[in-house]
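Tokens for chain A. Residues wanted.
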């Protein structure tokens, strides 16, 4: 399986990038990164959008407050057309925070 890094960026969220899909076969977008919450006991995460539509969320439950947490990487199956597309990452909910100490990666597996 081939891999194409489509986004590698520091925080804060939101971040976005354009990329060229190599074909129209089934693929996966993998997203990882870190986020935090000012409150304890919160589900926090990263929303994943492809061409303006939400396709998934990478998340983790954070027991502690004000601690950066790596989300569980999300693998989202996608069917793309060959050519240019946009991936955008944003805060999953109001409990989620990100800053310049966080980083984000989106990878296309095909």
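Reply:
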């Amino acid at each position: 399986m081939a891999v194409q890094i489509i986004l590698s960026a520091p925080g804060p969220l939101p971040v976005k990038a354009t990329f060229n899909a190599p074909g129209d076969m089934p693929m996966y977008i993998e997203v990882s990164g870190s986020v935090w919450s000012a409150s304890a006991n919160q589900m926090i995460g990263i929303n994943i959008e492809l061409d303006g539509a939400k396709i998934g969320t990478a998340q983790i439950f954070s027991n502690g407050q004000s601690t950066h947490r790596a989300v569980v990487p999300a693998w989202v199956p996608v069917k793309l057309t060959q050519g240019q597309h946009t991936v955008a990452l944003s805060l999953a909910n109001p409990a989620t925070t990100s800053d310049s100490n966080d980083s984000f990666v989106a990878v296309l597996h095909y």
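The two ends are 6 Å apart (CA to CA). Strands lie at 3-10, 15-21, 26-35, 42-50, 53-62, 69-70, 74-79, 83-91, 103-109.
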